[in-house]
Amino acid sequence: MTHTAIAELYVFILAGFVGFQVITRVPPLLHTPLMSATNAISGISLVGSLVVAGSSRNDLATVLGVIAVTCATINCVGGFIITDRMLKMFKGPKLKAGEPK
Amino acid sequence: MTPQQILTDLAYLVASVLFILGLRSLTKPETARRGMQLAAIGMVAAVSGTLLHHEIVNYGWVLVGLTLGTIIGWPLGTRVAMTAMPQRIAISHMFGALAATLVGVAEYYSHHREGLSMARPMMGALGFEVLFGALTVSGSLVAFGKLQELISGKPITFPGQNFVNLALFSGALGLFGYLVYDPTQQWAFFALVGLSFVIGLSMVLPIGGADMPVVVSLLNSYAGLAASATGFAIGNNVLIICGALDGASGFLLSVLMSKAMNRSFANVLFGAFGSAPKGGAAALASGEMKSISAEDAAATLAFARSVVVVPGYGLAVAQAQQLVREMAEQVEKRGGEVKYAIHPVAGRMPGHMNVLLAEANVPYEKMVEMEEINDQFPTVDVAIVIGANDVVNPAAKRDPNSPIYGMPILNVDQARQIFVLKRGKGTGFAGIENALFFDEKTSLIFGDAKATLQKLVSEMKTL
Question: pLDDT per residue over B159-179, tens digit each?
Fold first, then answer.
């Protein structure tokens, strides 16, 4: 195994730990937004797709790349919008006039 | 490294940090929205950074993809109804996994076409990428079809299914091993893509509609792993990080869901969760079902001190969330307190019911998780069950022969009085008799949930 591959494994494992730590603390209340948030974030495959679509290596790669860019962009755009739409709906305690809080 | 490359890598670093902060903000509803907006900025940074990449020479095609994606993604973000969230999520797993798979195929194909040799670690990464990618694509499509009711929600099974699945899986593993041994075997690569696609179908087809929350979570995890593998294959850290976050999240959610649905995790991992565990003859609930008119129920509800609403998916189907909140307002107007008891699988995906109630302007502090509210039921005056059945079935605790025995349930049977809104006298989603309906403290209000709630609200207004 090469040196870079080992470094990449480090990144993967450590990111996985961070993910577990962070996500176990997300309350069930927000599990649906969590899912759509990770979906939006997974639109990051856009960075790989962009390079394939734009590097003009061969026709097949370009076609597959453009489809991949389209798919990943759908997730980015749609994912962040719908997550925001959902989170906007979660309203805190209603404060009536004169009610102490 | 050229200054350009350094800039790109720094953009990825910023994006990774913002993504993690964004997910962390989801631990509290107050911070969630701002955090996810930051994550979106991270995404813009990552994409801008990538556009500086020296390999990108043809911006025309890039622009075509970005434009098409935005045109399709926009309505998927702004228009889709909250009740349709599960299928919306399922289809976006498909998009994410498809992107990963196509990048993998293009990468492999171009490498061989250009006569470059491929190192084994890279082949391994590409293999994982198309394996998880392709099976997530087809699996998510089936899940989408079932949730959207394009195909039957019933488990589709055939004799020898487990054997076929096992054979498919060993076949894929064999091809994978062979490719790592000899990355030049193009036929094996494309066979692996095809076989993985078939595995996705055979994994999800046997699973019933009610089990979809687990499936969708698991596919979330697989889509993440595919993205991570892409990162390994093209040496991109931000992809590895996001894939790992996604994978961890999906994994955790599927463990939570499988617990809430009374299935062992091993059962979930190996995809054999379609068939419910077979019990012996379950004790039949019997006795007299007592019914009550909406008028009488309204009188009791109006003057109750503490009311707990137990919403099930039936409530969402009836589109009656708004009416539930109106009913709650009537109780609160007279000084009573209303809470909502949310079972983890009350909707069609993790946290679905919370979103549906939030949409109907129910403040989130009134939505109480199962563990927290279960101790409070003995002091509850009225528990009102709307469109829920199995999650309140006491057989889960009392009857070892019941198929749902061991499933965590809401202790509605401990409330002082129970109202159940029910369409007719039939059994629930799982087809199991519910002893709660025959309990002497229980009164059933028959009829369509929406119509009944409407009657309740208007009666309460006149009191």
Answer: 777 788 889 999 999 999 999
Distant-in-sequence, close-in-space partners of A64: CB < 8 Å, separation ≥ 6: A52, B102, B103, B105, B106
What domains, with CATH codes, occur in chain B? 80-269 (no CATH), 294-462 (3.40.50.1220)
**Looking at chain A, which residue has its C-alpha nearest residue B246?**
A38
The answer to whether the CB atoms of A38 and B23 lie below 8 A apart is: yes
By the 8 A CB rule, do B421 and B385 touch?
A: yes
The interface pTM score, or ipTM, of the predicted complex is 0.93
Rounded CA-CA distance B17/B9 in Å is: 13
Supply B385's token pair: 């069950």
Test B342 with A34 for CB contact under 8 angstroms: no
Return the pLDDT at B277: 45
DSSP label at B183?
A: T
Q: What is the mean pLDDT of residues B405-417?
A: 92
CA–CA dist B111, A39 (Å, integer): 29
User: Which of B29, B121, B228 minimises the CB distance to A90?
Assistant: B29
Query: Residues B272-298: pLDDT tens digits?
Result: 444 444 444 555 666 778 889 999 999
For the record, the structure tokens of B340 come out as 């909502």
For B199-254, the DSSP string reads: HHHHHHTTS-GGGHHHHHHHHHHHHHHHHHHHHHHHT-HHHHHHHHHHHHHHHHHH
Tell which residue, B417, B259, B278, B285, has the closest CA to residue B345.
B259
Task: Provide the token pair at A95.
Answer: 């404060």
Across the interface, whether the CB atoms of A50 and B77 are under 8 A apart is answered: no
E strands, B259-381, in order: 306-311, 337-342, 367-369
Backbone angles phi, psi at B144, to 5 degrees: -60, -50
**Which helix or strand (DSSP H or E) is residue A12 part of?**
helix A3-24
Full-model pTM? 0.91
SS3 of residue B434 by DSSP: coil
**Angle B272-B273-B277 from CA coordinates, rounded to 5°:** 110
What is the Cα–Cα distance from A80 to B325, expressed in whole angstroms?
A: 28
**pLDDT of B268 strictly over 60:** no
Chain A CB contacts of B241 below 8 Å = 11-12, 15
**Beta strand pairing call for B382-386 and B417-422:** parallel
Q: How do the pLDDT tens digits run along chain A, 101 residues long?
A: 577 889 999 999 999 999 999 999 999 999 999 999 999 999 999 999 999 999 989 999 999 999 999 999 999 999 999 999 999 999 887 655 444 44
H-helix segments, B292-364: 294-302, 313-317, 321-333, 352-359
Amino acid at B272: A
Residue of A nearest to B48 (CA): A47
Query: Tell me, what's the pLDDT at B430?
Result: 53
Residue B273 is predicted with a pLDDT of 41
> How deeply is B179 buried, as exposed, middle or buried, from its count of CB atoms within 10 A (0-12, 13-18, 19+)?
buried
